[in-house]
Design a protein that fits this description.
Blueprint: H1 6-46, H2 56-67, H3 70-100, H4 115-142, H5 148-155, H6 171-175
Amino acid sequence: MDLSHPFAIAGITGLVAAAAFLIRWVAARRRLMEDARIEYAERCESKPATVRGVDAAAFERLYVAAYEPRWALYAAGTLVLAIAITPLAALGLVALWPVIVMGLDGGPWYDEGYYPWMFYMFFGFCLIWAACGALMARIHHARSPEGFVPALARARGEPFDDIVIPRKRPKWAVRAVPDPKNPGQRDTGTEPANETN
């Protein structure tokens, strides 16, 4: 295998980037595990009601799941998937090209290596790599964990779904008085001008 080929260089660069993302994710998880242990100990001392019924292992799991940089893990997965699928995509795109140009006039400019073919291959690869990114983004979104505060409330056994958070009325809304004659009109504090026909 020729390591000086542009595809080999791009593949190696992508794998190095994927490894860097993976290392970033692992290092962040380790730091968060330590932070979770410290946070749990502090809460047990100062705010025991916030961790009532939650053991240290469950607290650590919830804390890490809520704050870990999941994007780094899925970015690494996207790069590995794109690198793995590229050879198959190249074979598929090359096999599909004769079918696409079959109905055209068949001039030599549609042969492999000319501009239409290069345009097709470039945007074909871009589409396939974008599909890899879209798939991993979809998985990332579908598997997103619950926020830390609601997850901790559920772990304590609180019916978090039934809690209604009251919204404070804005200061400007206290002075606003709707017109009972015209409920759709905003009160501007001025009298409407008399219109004459």
